[in-house]
Specification:
With 672 residues, this protein is α+β, with helices and mostly antiparallel strands. Helix content is 42%, strand content 22%.
Length: 672
Amino acid sequence: MEDQYLDAFIRESEEAITELNNSLLELESDPDDQEAMDSIFRTAHTLKGNFGAMGFEEASDLAHAIEDLLDEMRQGEMEVTPEIMDLVFAGVDDIEAIVNEIEEHGESTIETATMVEDIRTVIEEGAEAAGSESEASGDRSEDESVSDDEDSTTTTGGDTGDGDTVDVETVLEDTDVPEPDEGAVYHVGVDVGDGNMQGVDAMLAVEALVEELDVLATHPDRDAIEDGDFEETFSAFVAADDREDVRSALGGIGTIETSTVTEATAAVAAADSKPSEDDGAGSSSSGDGADSSVDEIKSVRVDVGQLDDLHGLVEQLVTSRIKLRRAVEDKSLDSANETLNELDKITASLQNTVMDMRLIPLRKVVGKFPRLVRDLSRDLGKEVEFTIEGEDIELDRTILTEISDPLMHILRNAVDHGIEAPTERERKGKPREGQIELRARRERDHVVIAVEDDGAGLDVDAIREQALESGIRSADELERMDDSAIYDLTFHPGFSTAEEVTDTSGRGVGMDVVHETVTQLDGSVNVESTPGEGTTVSLRLPVTMAIVKVLFVQVGDEQYGIPIKNVDEITAATESRTINGNEVIKHNDEIYPIIDLAESFDVPGETANGDGMLVRVRESERKVALHCDEVNSQEEVVVKPLEGILSGTPGLSGTAVLGDGNIVHILDVVTL
């Protein structure tokens, strides 16, 4: 199968699944919405046809079963009930897991027979059969399937029987499991009993497992297991051709008292497609228990007009290249200069066209969030109405990909910690149904995305108490901090006010990831909260990255760049005055403090231009003026964000390589 056809199939399937999920949510909220029902039926029919045409029969059979069930509801033969919707959503989740596996491996090993049977049973026996079926099939993780529809089994001394289903996704949150070259992946839960030498028994069990099976990973790691540092049981992920091979091997290991075997091929494949960082959650965050990360955006739709513009500019570029070469050969300086001016205009137009082509509507990312909020609120027993505004706002592809996880963290946190339980909301005089709104708006070269809830709000005293207990701030520091500064403490790594760790929250990882990601994108995060009324988390992000127009300034022996968009005015330093021992400049009856760049960055070298120059920053960015020795020039440069230990350095947003090969630091006037 040619890659181009497979890629087109995957992209179309992803869009269809998102559309199907959102239409199902509309139908669930209004069972009489005929337009939503028709849209659902059309999308399911398209998915069935596409899977069949591409030869993925398992997925086609499942889509066909879902289509038949939807047709029963469309014809009025079956009511739209929560149990039936859970079953349909579970089927869509399996389809999504199949698409993810096809993208990863070019084929899918996920079996759908059990899910198809569940759906057919409901069609034949009626809505009453949906309750038990949805419990069996609908509790799967949203973007992964633990199994190929097989329950886990328990092995005890060689005998097997039914065992409790193991939550493989929870284990995978903390375990990196490589996918095997061949065979399926099985999760093995091992119990070596309560002996006095548990560490030794565990060590012998692990060694036997390694001898008998292809062990891909363990949880916790092998050293911790051999030290007895685990609670009651430990886990191993093994590769094998079938379940019986694993059972047989376990039955022959004497130090293992009991064990469980669970199919985990799809779950491992889905986990491997996530970013490598831990996506747990804290008081101000949420974990991965409810959904997986949004995948990287790998395709964009381009307007034909933009392609025509691009083609025309390339033609001009080729023509100008020929003219420039002839001018150089003829040693005609005037002609070369004229051609270079043409090239400047062409490359500027080319840059703008390409940057516009990289812009993607926000809906590409937020389209999956309604389903996330729906499932999480049901799991937590809450009633939530989720609305989105401004989904047509466009952002650069790279930025849109990077902010998907931060937005997911914020939404999970709003559902888990923001919105109260229905009975508690009624007690407070609020509607049972909580409100969460995601809004996006454009502000010049930036986009502001805000997530607002009408929940309990942030507890300033609880945050202060936890910050003190965790040693994040001292009592004196906390006393001097206002509420806004206290809210910012929720971005500190490991911070959490959750009383217990759950699949959704309490690990203290989440909002720190939000802050770090947004900062790396040269953006900012702001939190506003009113106790009892709700919380708003706002992300301010650049529309696009990479090429920035910069003003170069000299400071001693070094050169720095200031983004032109941040500059309002350049004046001589003689305009400054001293007030209360601090240097300031006055503009329109406003006082602007002066930041000496040489002092801020401890720059070596002598001042080269008398009193120097002042660069006044736009008031919308920050009310300050920057003191430098001289202003050199302005130029468009490619800015690379700081990475590693330099990431988040106050006052610096990145670096740029000049035409002569020198590297220049680009200033971040907000954090300077």
